[in-house]
Amino acid sequence: MDRKTLISLRGVGVSYDGHVALENVDLDIYDDDFIGVIGPNGGGKSSLAKAILGAVPHSGTIAIDNSLRCGNHYKIGYMPQVSQFDRRFPISIEEVALSGLQSGKGFFGLYKAADRRLAARLLDEAGIGDIASQPIGEVSGGQMQRALLCRAIISDPQLLILDEPTNFVDSSFGRELYAMLQRLNNRMAIVMITHDVGTITSVVKSIVCVNRHVHRHDSNIITTEQLREYNCPIQIISHGDIPHTVLGHHEGDGCPHHG
Question: What is the spatial distance between Cα 15 and Cα 21, in angstroms, rounded to a whole number?
C-alpha cells in the first residue's frame, strides 16, 4: 500500500533571539508513521513540533497535505507538556478534554450531549473519569497529563503530536499509554517526543534524532555508530527481553542523561 506524505519539511530553520534551535531540516511524516523523537535537552525537539503546528516562526517550507485540512483548522492533535499548560485557568478536567473540539465551535462554543459522552468515555479509559468535575488546579500532574491526552485525541485527528507524554505518570499508566498509542496508530500517524528511550523502541516504528539538525532512522533499532553519525548525544538504545539502555560518555555536550 502506498504511503501518503502528510507533512513535508524542507530547509526548515527555527531561531529564538539569535539562538538557532533548528537548522536546514528536511523531514517527511507519513500517514502510517509512529515516530519517536529523541535528542538532548535544548536540541530542538519541541521546536520541531511547534514548527509543524505553526506555533513558531520558521524559515524554509512546511507543506501540509490537503487531507489534513478541515475548514479553518488542521486535523492535528497536540499534547503539550504539563508545564506549558496554565493550570490556574478556571476549568474542569472534563472541560480540558472537551476543549479539543474548540476549533469547530469557538472558545465558548456549546457542546452537544454526544461530545460530553465522548469526553466521559475517554476520561474513563484514561482512568480519571471519577475526577471529571474537578478544577485542573486541584489535580496531580499525572492526572492533568491524562486529561491533555484526552484533549488531543477527542477530535480523532489524522496526526497526533505528543511532547513528553509520560512525564508525571506512573509506570503502570505509561504502559497503558503506549498500548493505547499503538491502537491509535491504526488510524492516525503519531509523532512522540520523549526521553523514555529504553521503552519507546518496543512501540515506535521509526526514530528521529534531533540535535539542531534532524536525522530520520526508519527502524526502531539504532546503533551507537548511527547516533554518533547523527551527532545525537543520548542514551544508547538496546533490545532484549527487558528494555534497557547503555549510557555512553560524551565530553562537554551538556547531555542530562549521564553523569
Answer: 5
Q: Residue ranges of the domains in the chain?
A: 1-75+191-259
What are the phi and psi torsion angles at 18 (to 5°)? 90, -10
- pLDDT value at residue 235: 55
Contact, 222 vs 245, CB < 8 A?
no
Other beta carbons within 10 angstroms of residue 193's beta carbon come to 22
pLDDT, position 241: 44
Question: Where is pLDDT greater, at 14 or 70?
Answer: 14
What is residue 244's DSSP assignment? E
pLDDT of residue 158: 96
Cα–Cα dist 213/226, whole Å: 14
Mean pLDDT, range 9-20, rounded to an integer: 94
Strand partners, 16: 19
d(CA 163, CA 149): 10
Please say if the pLDDT value at position 171 is more than 80. no
Q: Which residue has the higher pLDDT, 230 or 66?
A: 66
Q: Answer for the pair 52, 190: CB distance below 8 angstroms, yes or no.
A: no
Tally of CB atoms within 10 A around 150: 28
Cell representation of residue 157: 485527528
Q: Is there a contact between 250 and 83 (Cβ–Cβ < 8 Å)?
A: no
Tell me the percentage of the chain whose pLDDT exceeds 90: 53
Q: Which CATH code of 2.40.50.840, 3.40.50.300, 3.40.1570.10, 3.30.499.10 fits the domain covering 1-75+191-259?
A: 3.40.50.300
